[in-house]
Design brief:
The structure is a homodimer. Chain A has about 775 residues and is mainly α. In chain A, about 50% of the residues lie in helices and about 10% in strands. In chain A, helix 9 packs across helix 17. The N and C termini of chain A lie close together (about 10 Å). Chains A, B: One of its GO terms (cellular component) is lysosomal membrane. Chains A, B: Keywords: CBS domain, Chloride, Ion transport, Membrane, Repeat, Transmembrane, Transmembrane helix, Transport.
Chain lengths: ~775, ~775
């Protein structure tokens, strides 16, 4: 089962675990050739949720306040403190403005392209449907439809498989990881953005059960990561601006804004976007950052609104704040007694969502095991596409739900209906998913028969399950909403049948069903509630939406996790959970930490540094003072230096003592580090002569002189809170005399997962190489 | 200027600073007789924003994970881990449910009482207005009106002055302090709640320019603090439930829920409530806590909705989610070009808010200096009440704005208008403020003349400025909204006059003006935006509201801080700001910390402990190991013990070595600490015999063995983030050999305030006794 494999598509099908697990001291693994040579597990030993991959790096969110940094700040503070702070602040707001506007433009382009492409397709196919005369000729539009769809989805699939595998799926799991502090390789590159954006246009136009909303969040994040750096590594172009933002800390802050802008663009939900970023970022509430995130999402929603209003022919009407539009709910609200029914729907949504997740999990494991070759991936997409078209066609063909034509139907198909009528089934299947959602929410009572809804609901549920995880960009929101809206409307029709007076608004039930289904699949918490409230444009439904989402989450959580979390677990990402395992105060740092730790001396020889960097892949190295030995023990802890800094120091030959005792050639400045960010030179690519290896480097001006550290008595919850609140990567564990005895990284914490369902208690997860 | 003073009313007029500043080592000051003997500064030396008061304790948000705690957890973990976690979780949710429901009941009672009381008042006075025949007889209703108002506000004032001074004002500053980690004395007591709730009913009914919304947030918080503890110290009743929640950590978490419930009750804004708590609490986003806060605010909004719907005669119509109701905005939304006008209004709102704050600041300083005697406080309230009635009466009397009567007017006064008409001026002045807001928002175009609006706006602005800070419970939202709505509507009328076609919706401009004014006064950020959006019940106005609030905040911030912050600063509360001072990385722990630190040995003599507790008022004591001396230096840092723990140990005679070497009489358990919480026995009240003083206590099982500590190289921003994210009270500073060299507390950080307006740079604030 061993083979070389070029594709490291992540979190969305076709996934290959990292290899050569060498987490000896657990210090934030760094892989040079991640995913090139991959060991595949035999089928028996493969248990995806029981391992942690070593493919992912953590981000260095903690600011390295070393001597250089303090000197730079002190200079600024002495000279012109206000103008500098002011400049930096203006730059930050300006970048957020750019992020919002560019994300909005991308969203508008995607929307317009899909509108044009899908429009042409449906118009063309509809033309041939019109010409149908008997059961044979109706196969002409069927095959036309199918071939167009296959062509479209193939483009999307090719882009993902041969372009950038990480562009597959919705992108939300990857952004969750990024905001949590785990860097998924390639996730914020320009190439990913192009593949994602073009791919989603073709995937949606190709009629698959996918939405374009999730990918917008990914797109916004990539835009943010790109714009904020003022340079493009892919295009080898450095604009020499925003140099101060070239750190993991600033970059992640901007990506928060980008993700929020993406949510704002997708759902017209600027506040929901802010909450999404805060919830996933989960550092402490940083007021000025939150304002900037707010600004980005607001700008994005507004710009998109203007662009789409202009496109729709009503400039300045500002009626399209987001890509998805639930339309106007003009109902009279709800009655108190209906809340019980909503809760019931929440329960059903949770169950349905759990079923969805269970099926998709099995399918994903199957895909990881068997469907990983590029050709197979593309074939699978085509097969699903054929299945989608065939089932849609069959449903339309067999349906006899004819309705009088109104303006709200986008591509009315007459088919076997009388003149002036259209097929209600076709209105659902033969349309973009967004349009179908609106139809289910707003079509007036009686305009869709249960005989149309039942097959639609079942088919769409199945198709959505099959589709998520394919090698195409694919949002999960719309398919979930559609399936839920269908059964919700069915329920509404049933109630209306029982008592037409008490239950008049079937559209409301469709909305609640949609929320329940989405909540059951995603379990996405508080931001989701706000997103749905904003998308509904009507605050009256706030309370029912909240209740339904909480109920759905609780019911679903009995069986499995949310789909995003399932996919993150499937790929063994060392994600930090929301909280520490319960009742774990008796687990101490000494139990969690990795050891022994490789340390460096404050003044260290170049030879030893080179050797250490070459021989292991750790990322952070505690610096100790060998001359300050208390008693007979080792040196005391003085600071922390990370691999990328050492790489810059070696590359720039920042040697303090040459054998000929000349001074260092040039003073190393912060800009030397910033210019290399984020792709630092590998140790293999730095040439160090044997003579240079005899030199030494004084690490003290460069190391972080006060990294967070804890005593070995510190409890697991305490360590967890430090990591979560401050975005740590390394936490040094010291003994009573301030000597380094161990190191805790994100991976050490992630290993201590607590699985309440499996009664595992606090047992440690195996970290194996697969 | 020195005098004894019993009242320590806080943050809202009549404030007296703490005395005898003994912040020698800055370890979280604890005062035994706070506010009893007060030094008043001479007028020259009084500079309220330049000092820190020593009157406030910090809360111990950090969980003390000592040996007892770990043992208790480990026992539970071994026995029945799931049932225990489950029980605790269910209890937490149940408490939140109670908090939501009780807060809603209080809100409903307040609303109904005000409705009845103010209704009776207006009906009675209106009766006498009807009988007027000439200019003399019209003085009868005037004096009647005035005497009723004086009687009502006197009750409110008496309750505050002689009942509980901390019940004055809106309570939001105090809750901000509480959530930030500063305990304002008496703020969450039952007595405060009673005075606040009864007081607000009388103050609002008494016709002052106050709202009942802010006090609801305070009320919710008190309810939360009370319910979660399962006992009442005031009533000496221990229900023996919720013992696990008797720590500062759990209590603050519940108070977050209570504050959110209060916001939900006040504005019908459950999401805004959650955001308010998160924003002010500002620890990192704790997912399960956030859900519970959400649940509390949702429950509260729903319960209040049911109660008020029932009271209004439409059970289950669920149309009153909050006390304030902006009514239905049925306008067509807004046009893109109007956004520029909104921004302009934001600028104006910022300026008007800054003016409001500047006047109120001067007034508050004046009050602190001169109006602090109980009698003066009550007299001042009565004077303002007379002024309010007189100005209102004059405006009504001089106005000639007659409008045909419609249903929407609550207490129509005919006055000098023709039959079937009412005085529009009276509709604004002769009504509860909530009703006036609705009138300004929704009265149809032309129903209020500019000649009515201009005096109303000016008078109300002035009255609101004068009223906030009086010795009565007084919300700030409604007065600000009213003043803003008035000038906003004026602006709308002006635009309508310019172009009736382009600007038809004057109510929208009233809304935007209200938001601008409120934003200018409070500068309350993201939660405020969401609160207003939810109160408006219409998401369409989200973007303009955001824009206006941001603009108003920016403009106002040029001149001064938000009013709540001004009042917090006036009382020298060591509040932690949103972020560290900019460019302060070169300020190190060594510069910030206080020293020398009083330490205890791991096994310490009772005599020394007693002496230390008696002779100083510090709260946290580092524990060092005297036998583990590295080299010739002092002992190494082993843990931290706080005053309340020592008090319990002494009281329970938890001595390890008696002179006669008998074992300790009884094992000390966590419940011993819980039963004393939150009012621990003072050291003076514990009798220690001379013989007992020779005993010793082993502090190791009780101390926190792994408190957060930093090296002296740690920068100010780093320390700040630790405090902010983890809610710290003490941070021990150690040297390279893990020996204690200093201590950083909240006060040490607050001293390093950075005032951008005054070009003060990073200079240290004097901490003086005033």
């Amino acid at each position: 089962m061993e083979r070389a494999h070029e594709n490291t598509s992540l979190l969305s099908g076709r996934v290959v675990q990292g290899n050569h697990y060498t987490e000896e001291a657990g210090k934030g693994i760094r892989r040079r050739n991640a995913g090139v040579a991959v060991h595949r597990p035999s089928n028996e030993e493969f248990e995806p949720t029981e391992v942690l991959s070593d493919k992912y790096q953590s981000s260095d969110y903690d600011v390295i306040e070393n001597q250089l940094y303090c000197e730079e700040e002190q200079q600024l503070a002495q000279k012109k403190i206000h103008s500098y702070i002011w400049q930096l602040e203006v730059k930050r707001w300006f970048v957020m403005l750019l992020i919002g506007m560019i994300t909005a433009c991308i969203a508008a382009v995607v929307d317009i392209c899909i509108d044009k492409l899908a429009g042409s397709k449906y118009s063309l196919v509809a033309l041939y449907f019109e010409d149908r005369t008997d059961n044979m000729t109706i196969l002409i539009p069927f095959f036309l439809w199918m071939s167009i769809d296959i062509a479209l989805v193939s483009v999307a699939s090719l882009l993902v498989v041969y372009g950038e595998p990480v562009a597959a799926g919705s992108g939300i799991p990857q952004i969750k990881c990024y905001l949590n502090g785990v860097l998924v390789p390639h996730v914020v590159r320009v190439k990913t953005l192009v593949c994602k954006v073009v791919g989603i246009v073709f995937a949606v136009s190709g009629g698959l059960a996918v939405g374009k909303e999730g990918p917008m969040i990914h797109a916004g994040s990539v835009v943010a990561a790109g714009v904020s750096q003022g340079k493009s590594t892919s295009f080898k172009k450095d604009f020499k601006v925003f140099k101060n933002f070239r750190t993991d800390h600033e970059k992640r802050d901007f990506v928060s804004g980008g993700a929020a802008a993406g949510v704002a663009a997708a759902f017209g939900a600027p506040i929901g976007g802010v909450l999404f970023s805060l919830e996933e970022g989960a550092s402490f509430w940083n007021q000025s950052l939150t304002w900037r995130i707010f600004f980005a999402s607001m700008t994005c929603s507004f710009t998109l609104n203007v662009l789409l209003s202009y496109y729709n022919g009503n400039p300045w009407s500002l009626s399209s704040p987001g890509l998805i539009n639930f339309g106007e709910f003009t109902g009279i609200g709800y009655h108190g007694y209906e809340i019980l029914l909503f809760l019931l729907m929440g329960v059903f949504g949770g169950l349905a969502g759990a079923l969805f997740n269970a099926i998709n999990y099995k399918l994903s494991v199957f895909r990881i095991k068997y469907v990983y070759k590029s050709v197979l991936c593309i074939l699978e997409v085509i097969v699903i596409s054929i299945l989608t078209v065939s089932l849609s066609f069959l449903s339309i063909y067999l349906s006899n739900d004819c309705q009088p034509i109104t303006d709200s139907v986008q591509y009315p198909l007459q088919l076997f209906c009388g003149d002036g009528e259209y097929s209600a089934s076709a209105a659902l299947f033969f349309s973009t998913p967004e349009q179908s959602v609106k139809t289910l929410f707003h079509a007036h009572e009686g305009s869709i028969k249960p005989t149309t809804l039942i097959p639609f609901c079942l088919i769409y549920f199945m198709l959505a399950t099959l589709t998520y995880g394919l090698s195409i960009p694919s949002g999960l929101f719309i398919p979930s909403l559609l399936a839920g809206a269908a059964w919700g409307r069915l329920f509404g029709i049933f109630l209306h049948y029982l008592s037409p007076d008490l239950f008049s608004d079937t559209g409301l039930y469709a909305l609640i069903g949609a929320a329940a289904q989405l909540g059951g699949v995603i379990r996405m918490t508080i931001s989701l509630t706000v997103i749905l409230m904003e998308a509904t444009h009507n605050i009256t439904y706030g309370l029912p939406l909240m209740l339904v989402l909480i109920t759905a989450k609780w019911c679903g959580d009995i069986f499995n996790h949310g789909l995003y979390d399932i996919h993150i677990e499937l790929h063994s990402v060392p994600l930090l959970k929301w909280g520490p395992p319960p009742l774990s105060s008796h687990v101490k740092a000494g139990d969690v930490m990795s050891r022994p730790v490789i340390t460096l001396n404050t003044i260290e020889s170049v030879g030893k540094i080179t050797e250490i960097l070459q021989q292991n892949e750790h990322n952070g190295f505690p610096v100790i003072d060998p001359y300050d030995q208390s008693g007979m023990h080792g040196g005391t802890f003085r600071g922390l230096i990370i691999r990328s800094q050492l790489s810059v120091l070696l590359k720039n030959k920042a040697f303090t003592s040459w054998p000929t005792s000349t001074a260092p050639r040039r003073r190393i400045e912060l800009d030397d580090f910033r210019n290399e960010y984020p792709r630092f030179t590998e140790i293999e690519d730095i040439s160090i002569t044997d003579r240079e290896k005899e030199c030494s480097i004084d690490l003290r001006p460069f190391m972080n002189p006060s990294p967070y550290s804890v005593s070995k008595e510190a409890s697991l919850p305490r360590i967890f809170r430090l990591f979560r609140a401050l975005g740590l990567r390394h936490l040094v564990v010291t003994d009573g005399h301030n000597r380094v005895i161990g190191m805790v990284t994100r991976k050490d914490l992630a290993r201590f997962r607590y699985s309440s369902h499996r009664e595992r208690g606090l047992q440690e997860l195996p970290v194996v190489s697969i």
